[in-house]
Design brief:
By secondary structure, this protein is α+β, with helices and mostly antiparallel strands. The protein is 32% helix and 27% strand. The chain has four helices and seven strands. The strands form two sheets. The chain has a five-stranded mixed beta sheet with strand order 2-4-5-7-6. β6 and β7 form a beta hairpin. α2 crosses α3. It is globular. It starts with a helix and ends in a 9-residue tail after the last strand. 32% of the residues are buried.
């Protein structure tokens, strides 16, 4: 727990102090696919649905930081489905933005708790390892990429986090 807390505090410090350096053109769909491959869900009761935008969906970002965000959100999604369910990753363009949805069919988040999940002291993983910093770090990293996170959730119906980033013109080259 202490090691995990130390790592999360380090990542929080990096997320808060990010100066925008090390940002390069990235394909959001490619990045989401790689994160999913790295996450490697080995639970037979979790079905993974993938719906990635055909063609480049380019953003300006830091692949390592965004990979960390995707992995944290996928880990939370799997935790929210202790009896199994469906994890979905979907990328798509919308109104000049590049978006990725990370959705689960798990326990959901009650409306009265939804604003609390972004606080550094909040965790709902009682009896499990959890520092209460994961979603705060995710939010800060996304904001440092001039992005936003939206939440849609209902108890017993699951949760969808939508991450929205400014889409680069199709003339930019992906590295």
């Amino acid at each position: 727990f202490i090691k995990d807390l130390g790592n999360k505090l380090k990542h929080l410090g990096e997320a808060i102090s990010s100066d925008g350096k090390n940002m390069v053109p990235l394909d959001l769909s490619e990045l989401a696919q790689k994160s999913l491959e790295l996450f490697a869900i080995n639970k037979p009761n979790i079905v993974v649905l993938r719906e990635f935008c055909p063609g480049a969906l380019q953003i300006l970002g830091n692949a390592e930081d965004l990979n960390r965000v995707f992995m944290n959100m996928m880990e939370n999604a799997v935790r929210a489905m202790p009896d199994g369910g469906t994890l979905s990753l979907r990328t798509y363009p919308k109104d000049g933005f590049a978006c990725v949805d990370i959705a689960d069919t798990g326990i959901g988040i009650a409306p009265e708790v939804q604003e609390k999940i972004w606080r550094p002291d909040y965790t709902n993983w009682r009896g499990e390892s959890g520092t209460g910093l994961g979603l705060l770090i995710c939010k800060k990293v996304v904001e440092n990429h001039q992005g936003r996170i939206y939440l849609q959730s209902a108890p017993g119906q699951g949760t969808t986090f939508t991450l929205q980033f400014k889409k680069l013109s199709s003339r930019s080259k992906t590295l």
